[in-house]
Write a structure and sequence with these properties.
- It is a single chain.
- By secondary structure, the chain is an alpha+beta fold.
- It is built from two helices and three strands; from the N terminus they run H-E-E-H-E.
- Helix 2 links the parallel strand 2 and strand 3.
- The longest helix is centred in the first third of the chain and has 39 residues.
């Protein structure tokens, strides 16, 4: 074997291992991203989350037992210009 090729046969093997490792990492990250996105959509749908307002600060409004987010309808207009208002229903309400 020529001296300039010594050690190169392992180089291709190392690149193959790295490429396979990167392929698996991409597959795992894709799966996690898609799973997280689906879970996020499920939570938003399950809790009937709505977002109103134009501000940069967030105001989260949670209702009490036996109510739903409709109870905030007279209060939210006062804050809608300065806050991003997040309303949700507890599971089983609304």
């Amino acid at each position: 074997m020529p001296s300039w090729l010594k050690g190169k046969e392992n180089s291709n093997f190392e690149w193959s291992k790295k490429r396979e490792s990167l392929r698996w990492q991409l597959l795992v990250f894709s799966y996690i991203y898609l799973k997280t996105e689906k879970m996020t959509r499920d939570v938003i749908k399950r809790n009937n989350v709505t977002v109103h307002g134009e501000g940069t600060q967030v105001m989260l409004m949670a209702h009490g037992y036996g109510c739903d987010q409709n109870m905030w309808r007279f209060i939210t207009p006062a804050f809608i210009n300065n806050y991003k208002i997040v309303l949700f229903d507890h599971v089983g309400s609304g």
